[in-house]
Each structure stands twice: as structure tokens, then as C-alpha cells.
Amino acid sequence: MKLILKLVFALTLIGTVGAAVIGDRSNSRCGENEVWSECPSCETSCEEQIKECPLACPVPGCICIDNFVRNEGGKCIEMQSCQIGNKEERCCADNHYTTTQWRALRRQQ
User: Fold this and answer.
1) Which residues contact 62 (CB under 8 A, 6 or more apart)?
2) What CATH number corresponds to the domain at position 42?
3) Which position among 25, 33, 34, 36 has the lowest Cβ density within 10 Å, counted as fewest Cβ atoms?
4) Which tens digit of pLDDT belongs to each residue from 66-95?
């Protein structure tokens, strides 16, 4: 009986330490102005600052810290740094272009 208790304790300890090490490794992969999230559900970008959040959690990963958004290059920048501009998008079979204007919005706190 004592052997079983020792084995359960050892497995619990290994699992706890292993989870902490994996969490630290994941967080160290995040870039500047990013943080690791087990449920990165609603990350915004310069072009899409208001976004509907899914109910289910996607795959864990790095997200931008508060008041930062992803730019077109994939870096997390301050929301105020988003450039006002136009984005051309190709559409449909006749390959005509549409232009979408976007600008930086400020989050209300």
C-alpha cells in the first residue's frame, strides 16, 4: 500500500513539474508585446479591431498584450500606431478590385 501511495505521489509531482516547464517554454516562444494564452479566442488586428469571439477555445498560442493589435507583418503594435489606409482586395471571377478603408479605433475602458 505504501508503495502505491509513493508511486501516486511521484506521478503527481512529475505531472505538476512537467506542466510548469511546458508552460514556461510556451511563454518563452512569444515575441515582443505578446503573452501566452491557453484560450486565445479574440485577437484583433489593425484591419479588424472589432471582432466576434468564438465560443470554443482554439489551439493555445501567443496573443498581443492589452491595447496592442497585430499589424500586417504579424507584430503586436500599439493600437494607436495603426495606419489609416486603404486595402485593395481582388474579388470574383472578373478580377475587379474593391478598396476598403480602415482606421485606428480607440478601445473604451
Assistant:
1) 29, 30, 31, 34, 35, 36, 37, 40
2) 2.10.25.10
3) 25
4) 999 999 899 999 988 887 665 555 566 666
The structural domain count of the chain equals 1
- pLDDT category of residue 26 using cuts at 50, 70 and 90: low
At 61 the pLDDT is 92
**Burial per residue of 24-51, b for 16 or more beta-carbon CB atoms within 10 angstroms, e otherwise:** eeeeeebeebbebbeebeebbbbeebee
DSSP code of residue 101: E
Q: Does 81 reside within a domain?
A: yes
What domain range includes position 97?
31-102
pTM listed for this prediction: 0.51
Spatial separation of the C-alpha atoms in residues 24 and 45, rounded to whole Å: 26
